[in-house]
Amino acid sequence: MKKEFPIIETSRLTLRKVTTQDAEDMLAYLSDPAVVKHMGLEAFQNIEDAYEEIEWYHSIHKEGTGIRWGITLRDSGRMIGSCGFLNMHSKHYRTEVGFELSKEHWGKGIAGEALEAVIRFGFQHFQLERIEALIEPDNLPSYKLVERHGFIREGLLRHYEYTCGKFDDLYMYSLIKEDYKRKNVKLFSR
């Protein structure tokens, strides 16, 4: 993975590197129990929690194991969520995708706009073959979102993760490059 941090722009959003200047915005939405409910995180309590999250974003990029973009509104530059890849395995051309969004922006199509941009970037620039999404079974909005973007549910991973004092079952979803290309012929015919 290239070490410079790519910027992705959509009609309403700029996806960019998260910096310590974003910590207050990040704390605002990651301290909301509704936002973190399905993330395997406790709600953030203080600004230090946000700084630690930002440091994790920087470390996965530096190590080449992932990349996490801050989702910002183009008109304000305010960070309202994040979206990106983790557990990248370049040898196998696969990764996991994750995302979260401030509750005040739910239901506006922003998560889908960011997800689509990140998926396209992954297939075009990282030469990914497979993008996975691991989603808790009761997280209906997230699995409906990935299904709208062509992900296929492959099965249930029972007690796959231990987070917040409990074992979590997770649905495994995947999107394969060929399926994405078939759905988005114009993007790949340039």
For the secondary structure, the number of strands is: 8
Classification by helices and strands: alpha+beta
Largest sheet: 8 strands, mixed
Radius of gyration: 16 Å
Low-confidence stretches: none
Helix content bin: 25-40%
How many DSSP helices? Answer: 7
Oligomer: single chain
Descriptive notes:
The chain has 190 residues and is an alpha+beta fold. 34% of the residues lie in helices and 32% in strands. It has seven helices and eight strands, in the order E-E-H-H-H-E-E-E-H-E-H-E-E-H-H. It has helices at residues 23-30, 33-36, 47-63, 110-125, 140-148, 177-183, 185-188; strands at 8-9, 13-16, 67-73, 79-89, 94-101, 130-135, 152-163, 166-176. An eight-stranded mixed sheet has the order 1-2-3-4-5-6-8-7, with helices on both faces. Strand 5, helix 4 and strand 6 form a beta-alpha-beta unit. The longest helix is centred in the N-terminal third of the chain and has 17 residues, at 47-63. It starts with 7 loop residues before the first strand and ends with a helix. The model has no long low-confidence stretch (mean pLDDT 93).
Any key phrases for this structure?
single chain, 190 residues, alpha+beta, eight-stranded mixed beta sheet, 34% helix, 32% strand, globular
